[in-house]
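Page 42, continued from yesterday. The earlier attempt failed because a stray header line got pasted into the input along with the sequence. Redoing it now with the clean sequence only.
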Amino acid sequence: MADTLTPEKWGRKESADWWSAGQSARQQLYGAATEMMLDLAGVQAGTRVLDVAAGTGESTLMAARRASPMGHVLAADVSPSMLNVAAEAARKEGLTNVETRVMNAENLEFDTDSFDAVISRIALMLFPNPAKALTEMRRVVKLGGKVAVMVYAALEKNPYHEIFHKTVRRLGSMPPPAPGEPWMYALGEPGALEEIYRRADFLNVSVRAIPIQRRLLSAAAAVENMKKGAGDNRELMNRLNEADRERAWAEITEQFKRFEGPNGFEIPGEVLIGVGTKYE
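This time it went through. Structure tokens are written below.
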């Protein structure tokens, strides 16, 4: 089952509402890694940045603060509802250097060499054709500019989702996604992200593994958070019958208890940050 970034799925207002409600949690989870992505992309005062599949705009706003009023950040996404959230967040913060535009990542409607840097956070693995999307990002960045993306590392590096997926798929006798099928962990295997960059003709390609940690009050709170989720997890769980859904949530809760401690529920994870340079 693919969870591709399409207007039909991610353009729904309920998806935007769910993403908006989780902004602070995502900032805690991805904030430090996002700063590294911006470092690697070369985002600084005066930089003109494109944020591809920007969603509700957390990475857009972080880039805009760095770019300063001398720079500019354009947030592109297939979902008008999500971009509305991003635009409102920029307005509330007084960031006048942010623009939003509805656009498909595989067909970026910009002139060649339009941006100093391009970023994309937790999205590339969901595109139907990630190599095409990355090729488009390369086209619109200026000569010598960098494209930096963040994706999830392999499923086994992310037990929060590994426990969920393995439990639900086992109870529902569902096969794992086929090789090349878009889903959250499609580019997490060793060498996969580097290969996409090379297919898009980038040079000086590097990929870094960055640890992340998800924190909630308890295992029960983590399960409740997961139940409210949108997209792939919800659709996967809904393929089970009611009895198996109850069994799945009980098993997930029990396994999550291994990650409870004096500070509540803390579970490790890992993302990959890829970067490449356009030289011709």
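Notes: Confidence is low (pLDDT under 50) at residues 1-12.
Reminder to self: strip header lines before submitting.
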